[in-house]
């Protein structure tokens, strides 16, 4: 596998667990039509969804979630919460009243911020930061201690009979900052939406979708910056859409890849359209163990993916890299109507002789340089090239700059709020993602989802 492509690092962190579970506080009568009995359990109540307020009606988020029933809203007021949140009840909505002031802080010693192992759950309008593993983990793999996923303690290979995919999830308006593995991580989960989030300071990737086939997942309108990798889709097969995101100032903008360490080899059938993928050369980022740096889009062993109308610029090694993964070739990938500029090389084909690939094609792209140089002439869409694609010569590149600890990445600016967060009714994550129309997604402007300047301070 070429050193240009970044694969995930496979760290196994050991994190201290929360030493005790805080008891639920008594619910105040009449606040939401719910009260507690003397033994701390919720009494019988109407089937109508309730709102459980933290800390007014439950002292902690976990206490509120233990009281919640399917369809309920757990509404969290501003504060810094030092707990690892477990969502184990279907169709619950967990929402902060203020995205920037409702903070679940791992203090650099807890593993995960929020772990969702129930179907139809929505997590929205809050911040998760300073966790050793993940900010938000959504997964169909779990045991008595919580979710299991690649990179976490106790990861197991998928047994579909034992671990069917979690069906239905939504993560939106979440700020995930300075988490040691992934910011927002969907693993063995399908029929979901990841939208309008901000991920930064992740030592692996800000956003991740993996081990689903078919996925039925939509990743849209997110910002991922100052991560080792902005977005990863590993063994995440179509239908899956990555639309209108801003992946900038990471070490690698995004990857679409196959990996034997996860189920459902090979990855196939993703659509990546209308994204801004630029300036992925940031030294003030966590260092990715495989050394990837200066790459916009990497496709490693990915097959039959479509890259449409993306703006890919300012990446110091390559705009797009196609390569193999072990014996899995890149096959049938279409790159059409993309605008590539100010990259060291706009597109490079680095497939191995063991798995050389074919059928990868280009059409309508604005670009300056490819490796091999005749690639646009030998790989023309829509018919594609029937012969094995020529492999670009290896080029020498300077070693990437040394990264910084993930806890030292500067925090992002304040982010936009979920509209009417305090009053909007709960909307469980059902029947997602709905109709998706990538053909309607245009080439983005250079300022797509531009954020205010980052603060100069180090993490709190």
From TrEMBL:
UniProt cross-references to Pfam families, sorted A to Z: NosD
Biological source species: Streptomyces cellulosae
Domain of life: Bacteria
Chain ranges passing through the membrane: none
Record's protein name: Nitrous oxide reductase family maturation protein NosD
Region annotation (Disordered) ranges: 376-460
Domain Periplasmic copper-binding protein NosD beta helix as annotated: residue spans: 183-365
